[in-house]
Amino acid sequence: MANGGRARPEDRRVKGYERILVAVDFECCAELICHRAAELAARYGAHVILLHVVEPMVMDSAYDMLPVISPALDEELVARARAQLGRLAEHSGLAHQAQMVVTGATKAEILRTAAELPADLLVVGSHWRHGIGRLLGSTASGVVQGASCDVLTVHLGDAS
Ligand code: AMP
After folding, report:
1. What is the pLDDT of residues 54-71, one digit of tens each?
2. Residue 125 contacts residue 30 (beta carbons within 8 Å)
């Protein structure tokens, strides 16, 4: 093969999505993201996995100035996140689909979960940002840069 055995873009067949990972926080627009994902899942006959990441709140006791928060608090946050994700799934018509709550850094956990499943489409919300918010980036831009599958960013309006 002239190109050293690699598939050429023109050789790749267009195929539908099979596993759609939908990353949600519990902000007001989470249902809109779920509805977009539900539409696509219906169109392609795909499975949906709803994902929420809980950022751990346990602080290192080396920082004397900060209170050390019990790991039990993280467990409580995970339990609450599970309940909230269940409600969101129900309101979005996705109650029969898989739900995951994991702990860690949001962008890294979204990317890790997408790679592990593996997902062939990742759906996240995206706000238009100004100033420092734009410089610092967002979950959506980090995910777009790091993902090895297609990413749909659902526009959620202005974050200013
Ligand atoms: P943000 O960058 O915080 O405006 O978030 C943009 C999008 O990233 C959200 O609409 C979600 O799709 C996703 N996202 C943010 N935080 C989380 C989280 N804790 N767990 C899962 N997805 C999240």
Report:
1. 988 755 555 555 555 667
2. yes
